[in-house]
Amino acid sequence: MILFNEQNKVFTIHTANSTYQMKVSQHGHLLHLYYGKRIVDEDVSYLIPNVVRSHESNPAEAGVDRVYSLCAYPQEFSGNDAGDYRIPSIEVVNADGSYAFVGKYRSHKIYSGKYRLSSLPTLYASNEENAETLEMILKDEVTHAEVKLLYGVFYEKDIITRAAVFCNHSEGDIHLERLMSANVDFMTGDFDMIGFFGHHYLERQTDRRHLSHGINEIGSFRGVSGHFHNPFAILCDRNTNEDTGNAYGFALMYSGNFVFDAEVDGYSQTRIAMGIHPKQFDFLVRKGECFEAPEVVMAYSDKGLSKLSHSYHDVFRQNACESRFVRSERPVLINSWEPFGFSFDSEQLIKTAEISKELGVDMFVLDDGWFGARDNAKAGLGDWVANEKKLPGGIPALAEKIHSMGMKFGLWFEPEMINEDSDLYRAHPDWCLRVPGRDPARSRHQLCLDLSRPDVCEYLIEAVNKILDDGSVDYVKWDYNRYVCDVYSSYYPPERQGEIYHRYILGLYRIMDGIIKTHPDILFEGCSGGGGRFDGGMLVYFPQIWCSDNTDAPDRLTIQYGTSFMYPVSTMGAHVSVCPNKRTKRTVSFKTRAVTAMHGTFGYELDPAKMSEEERKECAEYSAFYRKHQKLIMSGDYYRLSSPYDDSIFTAWQFVSKDGTESLVCVVTEDILINDKNSYVCLRGLEENAFYRIEETGQVLSGAALTNIGLLLPHSQPQYSAFVFYLTRIEATVVSR
Ligand code: DGJ
Question: Based on C-alpha coordinates, what's the Rg of the chain?
C-alpha cells in the first residue's frame, strides 16, 4: 500500500507487517524517515531532532538555519559534494568537470503492478498479486540531470524492492561513477550485520558481527558476485534470533561487482548503501541517455530471522524466475563430473544411465568434456561441437539412447569462457578480455570472452542454440569457472573502458535471454565453480543453482545453512557423492549424505557401477523418499532448528507445508551420542494444540510437546548420524489421551 500525503509531502509504504516512510523537506530534499514495524499513517518527521550539529554544512537554501544539514538529516538518496559527507548514492563528473549532484523532489507516480527494468533482471508480479509501484523523480536543479527512484511493493510478503535510473537531461555528457540502487538511513539502532562469506568449496559461511563506527563493507570486485561474499546482507538488533527481534534484509538482483556498505557515523546513525561496486566503474551517459542500477530486494521482519527468510523464500520462489520448472517437480539427476571428469566414452555413459535408472534416477547429465578437444582443462572451451571420438553421432545419438531408456538427458556448457587452444580463439583472438600490451592472467587455463561485445553475444547465442534447438537436451548446467580481470575491450574506445565490467554483465543477461528464455522446455541450472554465482540476478534465469563443489555432508551443513537465510531450498543443487569424499577425505554414511542432499534439488555424483548391492538398494530408497517428499521440501516453510556453528550436538532443519498438515524434520549429529546427555530437537511451525503422528517412531505427540520439549534423538549413535522424521497432523479431537 503506497500513500502520499499531499499536505505533509509524506510518502508512506505499508506492507502487511512493515512501514517505510519518506518526506519531501521544505527545501525539496527527500528525507528518509522510517523503516520498521508497521505503524499507523502518521508523519514521523518528529524523529529528526531540532539540533544544530556544529561543523556540519547547511545548504544555501536553508539561509541562516543552522539545523538543516544534509549530513545530520536522514536522506533517501544522498547527493554528492553538497554537504552530506557519508557514503553517497551517486557520484558524477558533470560536463563542466564538477562533481556535484543534488537531487530534489520533482514528481512522482503511484500505480498498481510492479515496475521492470529494461536492461536488468528484476522480480515480477503476477496479475493476481497485490503489487504496487512508486516512481519518484529527483532532479538536480543546476545540471537538470535526474534520478528516478523506483519502489516495488509486495504487500503480503513484506517485500519492498528498490532500483534507481539516472537520466542525463543536461546539456553535455556526464560520467556516472557511482549509482547505488538503495540507500537507507537509520537514525537509531545498534545493529549486527550478518554477511555470507566463503571461497570455492565453502560458500556462504555465516558471519555475524556488531557494526562498529565507520564503514563496514562487503562486496565483490571479481567481475561476478563470487564465492567470497554474497550480495545479500542482514541488519538486525543485537539480540535478534530466529524467532524474535527486528531484522532487515538487502539482496541485490545482480551478478557482477557489488558493494554493501553499512556506515555508522559519529552520531551513531547507520546508513546502508547497496549497488554496483564503484571501483573501475565509469559509465559515460551521453545527453539524453539513461542508466539503470540493479534492483535491491528489501525485507523486514519483526519476528526474527526465520520470518525474514520466509519472505525471501516466498518471493524468490514465486516472483523471480518465470520458468515453468520453478513450480514443477525437479528430476533426480546423476552427473558425470565427479565419477568420470574428462575421460569417458559413449558406452560408459550409457551403462551409467542404465544402472542409474534402476536406482530411481530420472535424468543423466553429461558434464564437462563432451565438446571440441576437451580432454583436459587446457583446451576446447569455445568450441561447442560434440567430440565425435568420444561420442559417435554426437549429442543427438547419445540423447536418443538415454531417452529410449525413459530418462531425461542433460548437458554442461560454459559459454562465457575460451581456451587459447580452441578453434574459436584461433579465429577470434580479439574476442577475449585483455589489456593492450599485457599478457592476461589465466585461471584454470582459460580467458573470459568479451561479453561487452554484441558480436560475441550473438555468436554464443547461435552456437549454444544450435545444440539445444533440436530438442535432444532436457536440462543444461551453465557453468562459469574463473573470476574476471584484464578488463579491457578492444571493441570500445579508451574513454568507455570503465563500462566494461557492467557491460559484461549486460551481455551475460543478453545471452541468457537468447538461450534460456527461448527454450522454455529446458530446465537450466546455474553453476560457477560450485556456488560462486548464487545471486538474485541468476535466480531470474535459473530455477536451481549448484550450491558448491564440496559434496562432503558435514561441510554442506554450513554451506546450506548460510544459503538458506535468503535463498529457498528449491534453488539449491545438492548431490550425494562417494566416500571418502574426494575433497575432504571424510567418510559418512550413505544416509547422512542423502539426508543432507535432500536440502535441495536432489541428485548423485558417483559411478553407480562401483556401488555395492547394499548401496544401490539405499540409493533407490532415497530417490523414492525424496520424490515422495519433494513437494514439501520445495514449497514448505523452512526452519533452521539449530546452527552448525553453535554448541548444539546436531544440525537440524524442518519443512512445514503451507497448510500445516505435514512436516519433515532432518537431523545430522555432529558429535557422538554415546551415554551422554539426552538430545532433543525442538520443532517449529507446528500448531501447539494439534497432534502429529510421527511416521518413523509411531508416536503421536502434541505440537506443544514437539515445540517446547522436542523429539528425543536415539542414543548410541556415531558422529554424523542422520535422522528424518515425517509428521502428519491429525485432528486433536480424534486422539484419546
Ligand atoms: C565446476 C563445477 O562446479 C563442477 O560441478 C563441474 O561442472 C566442473 N566445473 C566441470 O569443469
Answer: 27
* pLDDT for the residue numbered 676: 74
Q: Is 282 a catalytic residue?
A: no
Place of cell 533426480: 332
Mutate to test the pocket of ligand 1, among 201, 334, 338, 367 (most ligand atoms within 8 A of CB): 367
What does the DSSP 8-state code read for residue 488?
A: -
Average pLDDT, the chain: 96
Structural domains of the chain sorted by starting position, each given as residue range(s) with its CATH number in brackets: 2-318 (2.70.98.60), 324-635 (3.20.20.70), 650-732 (2.60.40.1180)
CB-based contact 606:367 (threshold 8 Å):
no
Catalytic residue selected from 56, 535, 605, 618:
535
User: Do residues 225 and 528 lie in contact, with contact meaning Cβ atoms separated by under 8 Å?
Assistant: no
Residues 208-240 have pLDDT tens digits of 999 999 999 999 999 999 999 999 999 999 999
Cis peptide before 580 (omega within 30 of 0): yes
Q: Is the CB of 480 under 6 A from ligand 1?
A: no
- The stretch 369-389 carries a mean pLDDT of 97
Does residue 677 or residue 561 have the better pLDDT? 561
Mutation to probe ligand 1, out of 203, 334, 481 (largest number of atoms < 8 A from CB): 481
646 is catalytic: no
What are the tens digits of pLDDT across the range 612-665? Answer: 999 999 999 999 999 999 999 999 999 999 999 998 889 999 999 999 999 999
Active-site position among 43, 129, 237, 615: 615
Q: Could you tell me the pLDDT band of residue 732, with boundaries at 50, 70 and 90?
A: low
pLDDT digits (tens, 9 = 90+) for 429-472: 999 999 999 999 999 999 999 999 999 999 999 999 999 999 99
pLDDT category of residue 736 using cuts at 50, 70 and 90: very low
Residue nearest to atom 9 of ligand 1 (CA): 529
Atom 1 of ligand 1 has which residue's CA nearest to it? 529
What is the strand order of the sheet 650-656 is part of? 637-640, 650-656, 662-669, 722-730, 691-694, 700-702
The answer on pLDDT for 733 being more than 60 is no
**C-alpha 579 to ligand 1 mean position (Å):** 19
Would you say the CB of residue 549 lies under 6 angstroms from ligand 1? yes
Dmax over Cα atoms in the chain, in whole Å? 86
| H/E segment holding residue 591 | helix 590-597
Query: Ligand 1 mean position to 367 CA, how many Å?
Result: 7
Answer whether 368 contacts ligand 1 (Cβ < 6 A): yes
